[in-house]
Design goal:
single chain, alpha/beta, TIM Barrel, eight-stranded parallel beta barrel, 11 helices
């Protein structure tokens, strides 16, 4: 079932979460170990992220540079298929990103998802690899997420890159996109950022999942700004519980977010990371309760390889 249909048919706030594919060398059982503890709380859908491979350039003896992959995660298509058929009661939402894909490769990936019976996609531009200062699209690739959404919408209408393609079929994807309550790191301000978000909706996206935030007022204000801008699709809040003391400093640098003074004091005052982990769970419960009271369609959690904190939050909120 499409995410938008799950939202529209539900009379209550839904529970969902996001998985980070394991690094190359691990197998699918590591994913199952993350998912299994969360099943008792009836997640409506599970997102599967996609990350570009990380590369370095090594100098050869002849002076030329050799491109070498140093960090790669297993394919999102394969992991999405494994989740779909092991957990048929839960919808799977694979991510598709602009970075690392040509338009032809994007089309092939979408055809694979269609054959697998997957009806949901989260369409993202994606971040620049660590070895690049700015995002650079692939040759004949998408530079922005709204262009990627347009390609998916075209396939839903039976239009492919090869206009002479015979036996083409209509896909049936429900497309979600990302939103940034505290603006995208590359945008000069939130008003400018909302123009790009609105373009993604106009291209065919049906719902928004936000970047993580720790102050619910940021989300409430973001929703109000979206509505004033004419963005009227469901806006799903994304939460990532704090796991370690170090994250108080690291997360704002990576994701361009503010962390409330109250939470900073709580985490910095923790003697160990185990205590910080518990503080993150308590804050996540508090955030979730307030968001549900506000009437959000879904509370979506970013697992980043850990599900125990989400399990404890879900037990308090969705039992």
């Amino acid at each position: 079932m499409k995410v938008i249909d799950l939202i529209n048919k539900s009379g209550k706030t839904l529970f969902s979460f996001e998985l980070l594919p394991p690094l190359r060398g691990n197998n699918i059982t590591s994913i199952y170990k993350l998912v299994d503890p969360l099943l008792p709380f009836h997640p409506s859908f599970i997102n599967v992220t996609y990350h570009q491979e990380e590369v370095v350039y090594k100098k050869r003896e002849n002076g030329l540079l050799e491109k070498k992959s140093v960090r790669k995660r297993p394919g999102t298509v394969a992991i999405s298929a494994a989740i779909k058929y092991k957990y048929p009661e839960v919808e799977v939402v694979p991510h598709i990103i602009c970075g690392g894909f040509s338009k032809e490769e994007t089309e092939y990936a979408l055809i694979d998802f269609h054959y697998l019976g997957i009806d949901n996609i989260l369409a993202l531009r994606g971040d620049a690899p660590k070895n690049q200062r700015t995002f650079i699209p692939e040759p004949n690739g998408h530079a922005f997420a709204n262009s990627l959404v347009s390609q998916i919408a075209a396939m839903n209408n039976g239009k492919y890159l090869d206009v002479d393609l015979q036996n083409s079929f209509h896909t049936n994807f429900c497309v979600g996109v990302a939103g940034y309550p505290e603006k995208h790191i590359e945008s000069p301000n939130l008003a400018y950022d909302l123009q790009f978000l609105k373009a993604k909706i106009e291209a065919g996206a049906e719902y928004i999942v936000t970047q993580m935030f720790y102050d619910n007022r940021k989300y409430f204000d973001f929703v109000e700004s979206c509505r004033k801008a004419g963005i009227n699709v469901p806006i799903i809040p994304g939460l990532k519980p704090i796991c370690t003391i170090k994250e108080i400093n690291v997360l704002p640098q990576i994701f361009n977010i503010d962390i409330p003074e109250e939470l900073v004091k709580q985490v910095i005052g923790c003697p160990t990371n185990e205590d910080a982990f518990k503080a993150g769970i308590d804050w996540g419960i508090k955030q979730s309760e307030e968001l549900i009271k506000f009437g959000v369609p879904v509370v979506h959690y970013f697992s980043v390889g850990i599900s125990e904190n989400i399990r404890q939050i879900a037990k308090a909120i969705f039992s």
